[in-house]
Amino acid sequence: MISIAKIKNSGAALAYYSERDDYYREGGGAPAAYYGKCAESLGLKGAMESRRDAQRFADILSGKATGKEARHTPGWDVTFSAPKSVSVAALVNGDQRLITAHDFAVKAALEHIEKTGIVTRQRGAGGGYEWRHGDGMTAATFRHSTSREQDPQLHTHSIIANATRDPRTGELRAIDSRELYRAQREAGAIYTSELAAAARQLGYEIDWRINEEGHPQLELADVPGGVRDHFSSRSQQVEGALAARGLDRESASPDAKQAAALSTRATKGEIDHAVLAARWRDDARTLGYDPDRAAPAPAWPDPEARRVAASAAVKQASEHLGERDARFSARSLEHESRLFAQGRADGSEIRAAIADLTARGELEERAVQVRAAGGRREIGVGFTTHAGIEDRTE
């Protein structure tokens, strides 16, 4: 799952994100790291290992580094939350491989956001506005392992600072967030599909569905629903707040969901992770779920089977898109293909399948109108199928 929230107080936000799971650093790990091409250009690369590092990022969030502190939006918190069953298997059963899979899926989603969602707006020569894709993002990621109710909840806060480089001048500029929010749906699908693909390769059976909003959701079949529910106090609180207003997760608007989340948010407390881990394991045993059960053996993928799955997903996606429009964008095709693949193929395999089907003539490249930065329409790369060609010639 993915959510985006505007950051209002850079100092308080960074203190919360960076200090909450500080125990990871003591153990030699690094749950906090910089991300993005623009971050690298500012000398922010790799793990965030000290409070001095954190202060450098805080200066960028506040606008101090760019001299634009007044009326400055610090940035956005893009949060990727693992499904509850993944959190249980990773944090209660201790399958560290799933934490690695989560990190990889987050990175894949951030790559998409950096490519499509980082846009800056500037005054043009004629007095009007010009929108340009920024030269990279300035971000820091913070991986956490608990919810505010101290349930196991693997999630990563990706803090995207309101700063990118103008590709023409190299100067730091603010971000126009409209494209960032537009990229949310696709980034969420990328996170979920890459996590599903990794979990399948690790040997887990996946339950996959598309909710009423068109977003993919997955759970590990190995973790019973009763166990997932027991460790989902936060979700139950939000659902209760929505129910009090006659809503549920499917019918509530994004604003209503955010209001419900804020109204039920508990104050962050001190966390003794050893005590928490022991409690989680005891709770699991009480529910009849063995926290010491062995993790599944890796299901080494058959390359041919994955190629076939990717090809089938692209064909299904192109047929689905072709029902609405004879031509469709490459971006839409890749997004829909991920939904049909259900983690049986990853993004690179889907892109390879699109190229293969195009080379074989089952897809044909066509120029299509696509939405560009700032909402403009421009000509981009798209596709059509044989059915689409036949419809236009009849």
Write up this protein:
It is a single chain. The protein is 45% helix and 20% strand. It contains 16 helices and 14 strands. The chain has helices at 10-19, 23-26, 37-41, 51-62, 84-91, 96-116, 178-182, 184-201, 225-230, 233-243, 254-263, 273-286, 303-322, 330-341, 347-359, 386-393, and strands at residues 2-7, 32-35, 75-81, 119-123, 129-133, 139-146, 152-161, 164-165, 172-173, 206-210, 216-220, 327-329, 363-371, 377-385. The strands form 5 sheets. A 5-stranded antiparallel sheet has the order 1-3-7-6-2, with helices on both faces. A 3-stranded antiparallel sheet has the order 12-14-13. The longest helix is centred in the first third of the chain and has 21 residues, at 96-116. The chain is flat, with a radius of gyration of 22 Å.
